[in-house]
Every structure is written in structure tokens, then in C-alpha cells.
Amino acid sequence: xxxxxxxxxxxxxxxxxxxxxxxxxxMGALHAGHLSxxxxxxxxxLTVVVSIFVNPAQFGDQKDxxxxxxxxxxxxxxxxxxxxxxxxxxxxxxxxxxxFDTWVDVGPLAGKLEGLHRPGHFRGVATxxxxxxxxxxxxxxxxxxxxxxxxxxxxxxxxxxxIGVEVVVMPTIREPDGLAMSxxxxxxxxxxxxxxxxxxxxxxxxxxxxxxxxxxxxxxREAAKxxxxxxxxxxxxxxxxxxxxxxLDEVELVDGRVMVSAAARMGPVRLIDNIVLE
Length: 278
Ligand code: AMP
Hints:
about 280 residues; 6-stranded parallel beta sheet; 11 helices
């Protein structure tokens, strides 16, 4: 496994690599969710590239960026064991050299849900993912359903800019109690960690209601919100959404692919999760 920090060296390694190339973009502090993407990439491609880069451009809050978990050595060991060929781990200066001034804006999709609560977040994501695509020129790129809106934004980006990459979306990997795995979960206190599955439970409540025949968006949002509000460890709820997977607009009636998603704060951690009704 080669670990490369220079974008020129990475471009060259990818030009010379056996095709097809599968890219798994990450911010490191890897867990089983990330590894499921790596395993799928390994099964589908001759070369697997994993990027590890905590992207300052997608963080609104400097404290959040500083506190983001990092474990390069542990990550590299895991990736070695999973048969990864190339790791791209650039510095911030390598990605955003002095004078960097070009940004990728994905339009209205990026302004909803997470975008409303984290202004500029998807501009940072879309820009860094575009750069990763340009450096590595992957045939396929792997993203987790855990970040549901991100998958929609990246698919739109790839289509609109004719990137020619197949975007592969993999299911959310959960802890045994239902909590979606996330690098940030280590920041929860044990009390918060104990309560954190409430976000998934809220989504499941909406799902149950839907399977019993309820199609009304407000009723599903209300059901999920009630579960979150009943948990004292939830400090605040950013949103509970039942939205079209295509437009990310809230739906009045469930019809077609619909994503039920929620974001709630628990101490220092903002928990996000979603399920798809289809
Ligand atoms: P991150 O390092 O958090 O930026 O995540 C890198 C990639 O891994 C993204 O495509 C995430 O959606 C995906 N990912 C993170 N957590 C999970 C999970 N629990 N299950 C599946 N994919 C995940």
C-alpha cells in the first residue's frame, strides 16, 4: 500500500494504476462503515484508492474542526489489512494552496436540510470531492447512505459536470443498538452514547407508521419528532424531515423514494441519520 501526500504524485500513481479504479473519500478515524465502502470498492475494482482528508472547507465551526477525531496510524493499519492499493492523505496546503479561489456550488439541493443548518458545508464537500475526482480520475466512487443528502449532492455534481464516475451508495452500518456508526461517536459521554440510538428509533417510528399505511408527511414527521423530544439527553433538534430523494423537498404525501432524516444535538455531537422509504 502506497501512502501519498502530493497531488502530482497521486495523479501519476492513478494514471499508471490498473483500471478500473475505485475511490473511497473519507475524513479518517475509520470504522466499520468506512470499511464496508472499502470492501465493496475492493470487490468491484482492480485498484482501490482511499483518501483521508479532514476538509476544513466543510466545517463551519473551527472548534468542531479542531476536535474532529484523527488516527492516521490506526487508519493506515486498517486499510493495509483491507487490501487498499493507494492512500491519498494530503495536507491542507496541498489541497488549498495560497490563493485557492474556485468553488463548486451544487445549487438548491445543497441548501436544504444539512445545508440550511450548516451554511457552506456542501460547497466545501462538492469542492473537495471534485478535486479528489480530478486527482484520482476514478471509474467508481463509494459513499455511505449515512450521509443521505451528500449522496444526492454528489450524484448531481457528477451528472452536471460530466465527471464520468459511477457513484455507488452503500447502506448505513449501525452499532448493535441501532446507532449509525460515525467517527464523531467517540465524542459522546457514556450517558449520551446510551441515549444516542434515539435518533434511529425516531426514524423507525416513522417507518412503522408508514408500513401501517400512513402516507401523510406531517404525521410521519410528528411521530419521529415525538420520539426525539421524549429523550432528555437530546439538547436540541435541528430538523426532522420526510423529503423526496430527488428534490429533497418535504413531501405532503409519501410517494416514490422518500428519505426520512433527522439531525439532533447531544452535547458536542450533532447526530444525523436517515432511512429510505421505498
Ligand atoms: P466521513 O469520513 O465521515 O466523511 O465518511 C466517509 C464516507 O463514509 C462517507 O461516504 C460516509 O457516508 C461513509 N460513512 C460514514 N459512516 C458510515 C456508516 N455508518 N455506514 C456507511 N457509510 C458510512
